[in-house]
């Protein structure tokens, strides 16, 4: 397994993962019918960096890192993670999150914030807490889950600096 910085051509392999996750509507606040071009802008062009994890030439997951807010908040980054459904349960999300924290420090960020974690995404919430993130905010009914209806969205935060 190798984690490397994504190249523009990698989006051809990222798109099926992104499309599957967005179409499910269970974890990200992206339109379920998002276009490939819009997804590419969100995942490849707007972030500061995008990374992929691959094994035997197959892309299994990806994450982006970007500045969460400008000006006085520019020391806090935000990340998003996606893993192919066939590769879930293998520790890839853990590896990507740990990698992103090292990368965040290397880029000069002092903290990492996840702005909108669906409370129903129990696996992610459990993992983020295991990796040292605290739930610092709860937005009641802010995420419209396709099966569960309106559920809370969590704000999760971790100080990375010394």
Task: Please supply descriptive tags for the structure shown above.
37% strand, single chain, 7 strands, alpha+beta, 30% helix, 4 helices, globular, seven-stranded mixed β-sheet
Number of helices: 4
Return the domain count: 1
Which CATH-level-2 architecture? Answer: 3-Layer(aba) Sandwich
CATH C-level category? Alpha Beta
Number of strands: 7
Straight-line N-to-C gap: 30 Å
Query: Average pLDDT, to the nearest integer?
Result: 96
Show unreliable segments: none
What order do the strands of the largest sheet run in, or round the barrel if closed?
1-2-3-4-5-7-6
Order of helices and strands: EHHEEEHEHEE
Would you kindly provide a written description of the structure presented here, covering whatever features stand out?
The protein has a seven-stranded mixed sheet, sandwiched between helices. The chain has 162 residues and is an alpha+beta fold. The chain has a single domain (2-159), classed as Aminopeptidase (3-Layer(aba) Sandwich). It is 30% helix and 37% strand.
Topology diagram in text:
Layout: E1 2-5, H1 11-24, H2 36-45, E2 49-55, E3 58-67, E4 76-83, H3 92-106, E5 111-118, H4 122-130, E6 134-145, E7 149-159
Parallel strand pairs: 4-5
Antiparallel strand pairs: 1-2, 2-3, 3-4, 5-7, 6-7
Helix pairs in contact: 1-2
């Amino acid at each position: 397994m190798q984690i490397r910085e994504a190249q523009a051509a990698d989006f051809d392999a990222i798109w099926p993962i992104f499309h599957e996750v967005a179409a499910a509507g269970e974890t990200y606040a992206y339109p379920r019918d998002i276009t490939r071009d819009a997804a590419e802008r969100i995942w490849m062009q707007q972030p500061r960096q995008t990374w992929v994890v691959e094994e035997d030439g197959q892309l299994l997951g990806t994450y982006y890192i970007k500045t969460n807010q400008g000006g006085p908040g520019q020391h806090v980054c935000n990340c998003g993670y996606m893993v192919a459904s066939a590769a879930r349960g293998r520790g890839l999300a853990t590896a990507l999150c740990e990698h992103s924290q090292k990368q965040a420090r290397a880029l000069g960020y002092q903290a990492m914030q996840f702005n909108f974690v669906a409370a129903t995404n129990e696996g992610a919430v459990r993992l983020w807490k295991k990796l040292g993130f605290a739930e610092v905010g709860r937005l009641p009914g802010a995420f419209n889950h396709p099966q569960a209806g309106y559920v809370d969205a969590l704000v999760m935060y971790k100080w990375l600096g010394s």
